[in-house]
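Chapter review. Work through the record for Sugar ABC transporter substrate-binding protein before attempting the end-of-chapter questions.
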Amino acid sequence: MRKTVLTIRFPRPSAGFALSGMLLRTGIASAALFLQLMPLAQAADYQLGTMDKLRIKVVEWQTAAGAVRDWNGLGGDYLVGPAGTISLPFVGEVPAAGKTTSEVAAAIGEALQQTLGLPDKPSASVELAEFRPVFVAGDAATPGSYPFAPGLTVLKAVSLAGGLHRADSSQRVERDMINARGDETVLVASRNRLIVRRARLTAEAANAEAESFEPPAELKGVADFDSMLSDEQAIMSTRTKRLRLQLESIEDLKRLLQSQIVALEKKVVSQNRQIELTRQEQSNVGTLSDRGLVVNSRVMSVERTLAEMESKVLDYETALLQAKQDIVEANQRAIDLQNDREAEIAQQRQTAEADLKGVDLKIAMNRGLVAEALARAPEAALNAPGGAVIRYAIVRESDGKTAELAADENTKLLPGDVVKVTLVPAPAPALN
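Structure tokens for Sugar ABC transporter substrate-binding protein:
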């Protein structure tokens, strides 16, 4: 572990002494040797925090004796406690969190001078013996705290934590996940087709003779969307064309029957005119017969002709009634065709809605199984269909506030950082 000495300061000697003379007369060479043995300095602006370990040495320049006094009783390693302070003999609690080592050293010297009433302020050397640890949390093999070293990156910290979490059942979980994802892919495709079918049936319900429908906006951009749309459009066109042909056939029959009715009505009018003339002839022949001017056979012939004409009128009227009845039946058949079509569309819509709900439930069940599998073995998502994304984040405290920062493998850490490792499976197809 790299150790750091940031500050060591001696009080200025009194005006009557030259510094070089003091060093020669008092043997300060021992203090110089101490300086040479101390580790290299870290950046002077490093702020201490809870769980940093400090190595403290205190010396005092005694002006009257012209010598250096070593306070061995105060020297040693001190841990910055939860309150952000270190506890020193004679002094008590000294604030350390948020301060640099030079600031802590100055505070120790001042506290000793004031507490003990010393004429000269002792000099404290505060060395950062051990950084506070970093923490690895989330989908790591062994989450916990790990020693910090300068240059530590996210990837190195995760490596210290054993890499990604590995469960004994990950192979079985991975197989189950692959099966669940495969089933989900099939179900999502079926769901998309049902949504397109529902849109087509909705348009047909609004207009049984509609030839197109509005594509579902939520599926635009989905794979095979054009194919699904084309299939349902073909079904719609075929059904509409069949209905139209059936209705046109009925209309043709009605026009034919209407023409037949017009012809029969003309025949009835013509035949009634003939009957009227024949009756006049019958009346004339009857008068002549009463006078004995016409034979009875002539009378019978006229009566027979009249009867035949009246019979034809009845036939025409019967045919006329039959044609009108056929028109009524044709109209009813057209109504029945439309009613049957509407009933069929309503039934198919109901079936499509039920199937859609069933597919949604199955998809939700599969996703629940996948989520449960990931909870047991998150690393299984790495080899599952669509793979997974490893996301890193750093939780860092600064100025008394905690913030979560996005990070990658090469992001450098600071002492006290918390590295969050999260395995995020590839997003499932969106359900609208």
